[in-house]
Design goal:
The complex is a heterodimer of chains A (about 425) and B (about 325).
Chain A lengths: L10 H15 L4 E2 L9 E5 L4 H14 L3 E4 L3 H6 L4 E6 L6 E5 L4 E5 L4 H9 L3 E2 L12 H6 L7 H4 L2 H4 E8 L3 E6 L11 H5 L8 E8 L1 E2 L3 E9 L2 H14 L4 E5 L13 E9 L1 H15 L4 E3 L3 H10 L8 E6 L5 H6 L4 E5 L4 E6 L5 H17 L3 E7 L16 H14 L15
Parallel strand pairs in A: 2-4, 3-4
Antiparallel strand pairs in A: 1-2, 5-6, 6-10, 7-11, 8-9, 8-10, 12-14, 12-15, 13-14, 13-17, 16-18, 16-19, 17-18
Helix pairs in contact in A: 9-10
Chain B lengths: L1 H6 L6 H4 L6 E7 L5 E5 L10 H5 L8 E7 L7 E9 L2 H13 L6 E6 H11 L9 E9 L4 H14 L4 E4 L3 H12 L1 H5 L5 E4 L9 H15 L3 E6 L7 E5 L4 H20 L18 H4 L2 H14 L30
Chain lengths: ~425, ~325
């Protein structure tokens, strides 16, 4: 991997790479990085089909040019310390290949956004029930590659639970497929799991097959303020014990204002079903959350769910993804001294630190978070780090045990022997 | 648990609850070189590559799993279990599609055809209608509130699909009796023929009518009786081919009939196996589903865990050295 050209992201080298690929793909298919892409990529290619991607991979392997697939480049721009020479955008590969509403499956190219996909399935009252922030900017490839999830993970699962087939271009420019188009399938090794959350380090995902779900008949959302985090988590746990909720969040005080309760911790619970199911759940929620509950119903549910899904702490210096044993989430977060959006039933939270002094303080902060996460049997991944904190700042991925790391290093070496796929920013420096 | 993890097992309730891999968070395993490793963990998020996902369903070819960390699901408040009786399998499969199309996800939808109904009745006398062409066992689960409405919705859909009778289990004992009938179907088949072989193909749910017609055609072609008891909600068929192993000709016809059915599944956009695995028996059918490059990449993944190829060798992916002559159908039991 060390052989990969370290200087390839410099501007002269980028120009040469751009010229080389223009002669391979034709004019207009190589462009300068735009906006946030600039911090992640040297140049951007826009192939039109997988054959072109195969060509690109072969050339990159031959010339040792680091490359990575990109959607809107948000994940990468927030974690790469240095740009990758070449970004492969799938913006021209965004077709729905097959949508079978009666089978509840959909095959789509990886450049399609989640929002576009769900617009299509919504016409049949179905959805791919994954809700990471900004579905308008989240391509299916990026969602799989970074294993993105949102509040619905509680009831509907994650990418790994819904992805039933996949195609990618890997080493040698070879196209490989795993899974298929049926909802239950154990034929062959599970390449879908391997690629999910691999952050572009094993190849370029070109096509995805998902099982999808019906939209809920009726959905309501309850919001309750609390004067202490402990009470908000306690109420959430009581609800989780009694109801099969759609999702369940606890928000720290910085987010209270956005839901009408400045300086309060918020417990937010969504429930769904037919009228009788919803009536029953509403009564249990009112019982457990107390008198100050605000109920969101009808057309406002979608709007409020989207607001929750897209929540950000503007300008945060550090954002991280924490995963621990669910029962320990509240206690763990209380010891962090940070703001958070907690998926309370799953033991997972997005954690935000508004400001830190510099890279070394960022490292100390993340190290202390990680120590607490490990005590709660979990781990923590940094997802956003302000650009000025990256040199000498914390590693983005947490450590895994030695044995697992050896297997991961072997997987990387086997699938990417030339070390060209998004090198140097994954777990253990892979 | 080790068997479940190795095969990524399913069963009747996967329609709503998923298969084994959806419930495994971490594993302790012994690699084929003797090293003990822990992959994944108790937290519900993966750090690095999803090695747990790679091991689950790898049929013992990645090592020996010694411990699993599992995610539990709360028991639903209540169940409602139906027996829907149809004149033929076509009506039953129409009902399956109609239920799903209405946005209802039952806990399970299981189908038994006439041959199986006969066998179960002869063996266990559970009160299935012996003159029916097919029955569905449909189980709803969830909150007690709203269950009556949901049950009525399903009853209406099933009736509209041509069910001649819909019975509801009135209590836990009746529910248990229905499930007992379903789960003992394979045992009952033992009364019909000296031997049977079960296939485990999958088709897209909407292709169930076609695959069942194809199975009937295969039955006629090879002059072997074939019963069907399967997970209809998932499109996961379990045709049971009856034969007598004392007759070499019947043995060969049983093998050929199984292969023809699997080929038909793949041709309809399905798969070779929904939950039983590939092993040696279906290994040579893998090229129907996967290209040489697909299989090469899968082999690469296996070699990450087992570079020397020692753990359950010559299974799943055909290699030049793994020529296994299937001389008898696999006598497996399916639930």
């Amino acid at each position: 991997m060390s052989e990969v050209k370290a200087a390839s992201a410099s501007s002269n080298a980028s120009d040469k790479i751009a010229r080389d690929f223009e002669s391979l793909l034709g004019p207009g298919r190589v462009r300068q990085p735009r906006d946030r892409e600039a911090s992640a990529l040297g140049a951007v290619l826009e192939p039109e089909n997988k054959d072109e991607i195969c060509e690109i991979v072969r050339k990159c392997e031959a010339d040792l040019i680091p490359m990575v697939a990109v959607g809107a480049a948000r994940t990468l721009s927030q974690i790469r310390t240095r740009p990758v020479a070449l970004g492969v955008s799938l913006a021209r590969m965004r077709e729905v290949i097959a949508y079978e509403p009666e089978d509840m499956t959909v095959v789509a190219q990886a450049g399609l956004t989640l929002e576009e996909l769900n617009k299509r399935t919504g016409q049949r009252r179905q959805r791919l029930p994954l809700d990471p922030p900004r579905p308008d900017l989240t391509t299916l490839g990026a969602m799989v590659g970074a294993a993105k999830a949102g509040p619905l993970r509680l009831s509907e699962g994650r990418v790994r639970d819904l992805l039933i087939g996949l195609e990618f271009v890997g080493h040698g420019g070879r196209v490989a497929r795993g899974g298929g188009r049926v909802v239950k399938n154990v034929a062959g090794y599970d390449l879908m799991k391997l690629m999910t959350g691999s952050f572009g380090t094993l190849g370029i995902i070109t096509e995805t097959v998902f099982k999808i779900r019906p939209l809920p008949e009726i959905e309501e959302l309850a919001i309750a303020p609390f004067d202490a985090a402990e009470h908000a988590f306690k109420a959430a746990a009581a609800l989780h014990e009694r109801l099969p909720l759609l999702h369940l969040e606890v928000l720290s005080a910085a987010f209270g204002q956005q839901f009408g309760h400045p300086s309060s911790w918020i417990t937010m619970a969504a429930f769904a079903g037919n009228q009788a199911e919803v009536d029953y759940q509403r009564s249990v929620v009112a019982e457990e959350l107390g008198g100050k509950i605000a109920l969101i119903t009808g057309g406002r549910v979608a709007e409020t769910s989207a607001q929750l899904r897209d929540l950000e702490l503007e300008g945060a210096a550090i954002e991280a993804y924490l995963a621990v044993l669910p029962a320990q989430l509240g206690r763990c977060l209380a010891s962090f001294g940070a703001e958070y959006i907690a998926h309370a039933g799953c033991g997972v939270a997005r954690v935000f630190m508004p400001a830190v002094e510099g890279a070394s303080e960022a490292s100390r902060t993340v190290a202390s978070w990680r120590e607490k996460a490990h005590q709660a049997r979990g781990h923590l991944r940094v997802t956003v780090l302000a650009a000025q904190l990256r040199d000498g700042g914390p590693a983005f991925f947490d450590q895994v045990n030695e044995g697992a790391m050896r297997l991961m290093a072997r997987a990387k070496k086997s699938f990417d022997p030339a070390g060209i796929f998004n090198p140097g920013c994954f777990v253990g420096g892979l | 648990m080790g068997g479940n993890v190795a095969e990524n097992s399913g069963g009747p309730h996967t329609l709503k609850y998923g298969v084994t891999t959806n419930h495994v968070l971490g594993l302790e395993m012994v690699l084929p070189d003797g090293e003990i490793v822990e992959v994944g963990g108790p937290a519900e998020e993966v750090c690095g590559f999803d090695l747990v996902g790679a091991v689950v369903g790898s049929e013992g070819t990645t090592g020996i799993v010694t411990r699993a960390v599992l995610k539990l699901t709360r028991e639903p408040q209540t169940h409602r279990t139906f027996l829907a009786v149809f004149a033929d399998v076509d009506g039953a499969t129409r009902a399956v599609s109609a239920i799903i199309a209405a946005g209802v996800i039952p806990g399970a939808i299981e189908m038994m055809d006439q041959l199986i109904i006969e066998a179960v009745e002869a063996a266990f006398h559970v009160g299935l209608p012996r003159d029916a062409g097919a029955v569905l066992i449909i189980e709803l689960d969830g909150l007690g509130a709203g269950m009556d409405q949901r049950a009525e919705q399903v009853r209406t859909i099933v009736a509209a699909s041509g069910a001649r009778e819909v019975r509801v289990a009135r209590d836990e004992a009746e529910r248990a009796a229905l499930w007992k009938a379903r789960k003992r179907a394979f045992g009952a088949v033992g009364r019909l023929a000296p031997n049977y072989a079960t296939q485990d193909g999958v088709v897209p749910r909407t292709r169930l009518p076609q695959i069942l017609r194809e199975i009937a055609a295969v039955s006629a072609r090879y002059q072997l009786r074939i019963g069907n008891v399967f997970h209809a909600g998932d499109g996961n068929i379990h045709p049971i081919v009856l034969y007598d192993e004392r007759d070499p000709d019947q043995v060969q016809r049983a093998i050929d009939a199984g292969r023809d059915i699997l080929k038909a599944c793949v041709a309809m956009g399905g798969s070779l196996s929904g939950e039983h695995g590939i092993g040696a028996e279906k290994m040579h059918e893998m090229p129907l589903l996967f290209s040489p490059d697909d299989m090469r990449v899968m082999s690469d993944l296996r070699l990450v865990f087992d570079p020397a190829g020692r753990s359950n060798p010559n299974k799943v992916i055909p290699t030049p050295g793994s020529c296994v002559e299937v001389s008898a159908p696999r006598r497996q039991v399916a639930i």
